[in-house]
Input
Amino acid sequence: MYQCKDVAKEANDYIDGNISLRKRFGLFLHLIVCSCCRNYLQQIRSTISTITILKPKEKSTTNTKDLAKKLRDISCNND
Ligand SMILES: [Zn+2]
Output
């Protein structure tokens, strides 16, 4: 069973879709039970889409892994 730290580790690939079906399903199961990680992924998605809309040129240079880690620190403190 996936835990919050696993979600944090895989969040970037999960959002990008670069993830195996097995992993995706494991994360999905965790997201059903963990509102913390749901909020976390939602925040990443909205932040990325904001960057994409407002600063298209910066999208490719934005470090989404770093971003994901920062957001996780904000949204999730239950390790
Ligand atoms: Zn979680």
Summary: The chain has five helices and no strands.
